[in-house]
Sequence to fold (405 residues):
Amino acid sequence: MPEKLCSTKRLLIKGIVATCLLSITRVGFAAQVQLLATRIWPASTYTRITLESSLKLAYKRFFLTNPDRLVIDIENINLNPILKNLPSQLINHDPYIKTLRVAQYNPQTVRIVVGLKQKVKPNIFTLSPVGSFKNRLVIDLYPANPKEGDDPLLALLEKYNTGNLPEKTAANPPKKRTDKIVVMLDPGHGGEDPGAIGYKKTREKDIVLQIARRVRNLLNRESQIKVYMTRNEDVFIPLKVRVAKARAQHADLFISIHADAFQNRSVNGSSVFSLSTSGASSSAASYLAQTQNEADDIGGVSRSGDKYLDHTILDLVQKTTLSNGVLLGTSILNRMKGVNKMHKPTIEKAGFAVLKAPDIPSVLVETAFISNPSEERKLKTAAFQNSVANAIVNGIKDYIKKRKS
Ligand SMILES: [Zn+2]
Fold:
């Protein structure tokens, strides 16, 4: 190998050493970086392409026109069957990608050409290994000309990605004149972040979206309630953006819907959590909050967005919000008792990032344990999903009657 040659030459001529080292790096790197997996997450909000690799990938990007294409050159990598297979994952109704081509452009470079259905604003970034994920290169395609609508999600995501999401949520913009109680439903996880996975491979992100849609349908029948969802498709939304969306739409209540998991498959039951400013009510609650707060690492947020993870806005949390959160959680928990065995008889408290809106009573409902085979089976049925949805809706109605303002 030229390594020995290099070390000898290093003593002699600096310039040659540099060249020699460079060539070693190149050859060594190309041989070492392995593409391990590719995924495409198409959604109307944005489409994500994920390339998972053994080492961090280096890339360049540029646009071509007529037709519109985004080109991503990945350096120091060889085309392998996994990467070659990427285009086969493209689906016809992807809102952004028309075609995908992957080829070895030159000995060091693999070129990915993304044929576009509409002009996009790409957000491309790398993620360090976390959990079972290795290094990831993430290519998010946002619409360059988003349709005008009243959903603030895209605007909030753009602010988040550029590090401009208001951190200290000082004054909430004035509320539109409405007598309606605004409920924000938050189906946990989504896209690259599957949440917990059951024995039969049921994904938490799918179940909680189904349940949230059932809750929404029931709430839509209530004349005094207006309902929104943080996500209504299989897309990854960072935790802070979920909270920001609730604030932007003047939510009066925030309800995050999840399914629990534990290593011991016999553990079962439903739980309801509200935000705690003074530690978790049990070590299990603390562990759960920690794992749920990791959703951003799993789902993947770009570096500029990362800064939000370190911040706490707990100092802004008002007492009334907290006590109303407990009241809302207890109302839902009491209704859940008629649907499933409760994992804990009373409301639990923990520092979930998603519950940290300073002025919105927020709760997190763990519908059941997806890791428990019999509850996993139940979670997939329309009957159980409807019962849970009814319990949440009745809990909300009970709360509205009792709340302090
Ligand atoms: Zn979850």
